[in-house]
Amino acid sequence: LIDKNLTTLASMNDQAVAGGGTDRIQEQHGKGKLTARERIGLLLDEGSFEEFDRLKAGRESTIKRGRDWLGDGVITGHGTIDGREVFIFSQDFTVMGGSLGEAHSQKICKVMDHAVRVGSPIIGLNDSGGARIQEGVDALAAYGEIFNRNVLASGVVPQISCIMGPCAGGAVYSPAMTDFTFMVEGSSYMFVTGPHVVKTVTHQEISFDDLGGAQIHNQKSGVAHFVFPNDILCLREIRRLVNYLPSNNRQRAPI
After folding, report:
1. How is 61-123 classified by DSSP, letter by letter?
2. Which of 102, 152, 222, 249 is deepest in the core (most CB within 10 A)?
3. DSSP code at position 161
4. Is the pTM for the entire model greater than 0.85?
5. CA–CA distance, 243 with 220 (Å, rounded to integer)
6. CA–CA separation, 175 vs 38, rounded Å?
7. Are 248 and 120 in contact (CB under 8 A)?
8. Strands 166-168 and 122-126, sheet pairing
9. Could you say which DSSP state residue 49 is in?
10. Reduced to 3 states, what is the DSSP secondary structure of residue 246?
């Protein structure tokens, strides 16, 4: 019985690590994007990442097609950057488009609560289509929990957001409230709703780049502060930025 349980646990761990599966990972790479776990591996010191709630699953819904997506589309935990503690979440676009549901939000809120409690920076790697419509008002309420924590953490610990995919709706409200926002040229977008909805409502045709691309938000709207040509350079500059910031409002900056 013990051997059977260990085998089941190992299988569940493998399933969680695989995310949306090989085909979706290849599709992610084909767009020039790294996976959620690859991003964490590049951002944090090697071997420092400790994951929270790897096997946490969300509610049953038709989108799951009979499968429990372990991790619910987000990887959360803590690690170090040049030896300094940070808390992190990385949304997995290969799992239901990185959409946010109740369990997804609970994992992010847990990380944010721990970060404020111990006085460490919060880093969010956002790659999400927004609220998971199948969970209805629960998904919207889940975003409210995250927004509330953004407000409570403001001025207490640094909050850093990185937009690394086509983020819409609630997936960009939270980053807009954080201290620093990074974007990746050509693969990251921030908008309340996409070009197709804009065309339907206003009959105006507009491209993804003109509506919410990296240059628009860095040069005109001011919502974002840094733009880089790919995921690797973006993550490297987040590491650099952390070295200039104090871990919380009671510490001095390291430089």
Report:
1. -GGGTT---TTTTEEEEEEEETTEEEEEEEE-TTTGGG-B-HHHHHHHHHHHHHHHHHT--EE
2. 102
3. E
4. yes
5. 28
6. 21
7. yes
8. unpaired
9. -
10. coil
* 108-155 pLDDT per residue, tens: 999 999 999 999 999 999 998 888 888 888 888 999 999 999 999 999
For residue 251, give both structure tokens: 């510490």
Sign, CA torsion 64/87/230/14:
negative
Q: Report the half-sphere exposure of 46 (CA within 13 A, side-chain side).
A: 0
Token pair for 61: 């819904």
Q: Are 225 and 180 in contact (CB under 8 A)?
A: yes
Cα–Cα distance measured from residue 254 to residue 121, given in angstroms and rounded to the nearest whole number: 13
Q: DSSP secondary-structure letter at 131?
A: B
Residue 3 C-beta-side C-alpha neighbours within 13 Å: 0
| Residue positions counted in the chain | 255
Q: Is 80:45 a contact under the CB 8 Å cutoff?
A: yes
Tokens of 36: 């959620």
**Residue 155: CB atoms within 10 Å:** 11
Cβ count within 10 A of residue 7: 10
Q: What is the DSSP letter of 135?
A: G
Q: What is the DSSP string of 178-241?
A: SSEEEEETTT-EEESS-HHHHHHHH-----HHHHH-HHHIIIII-S--EEESSHHHHHHHHHHH
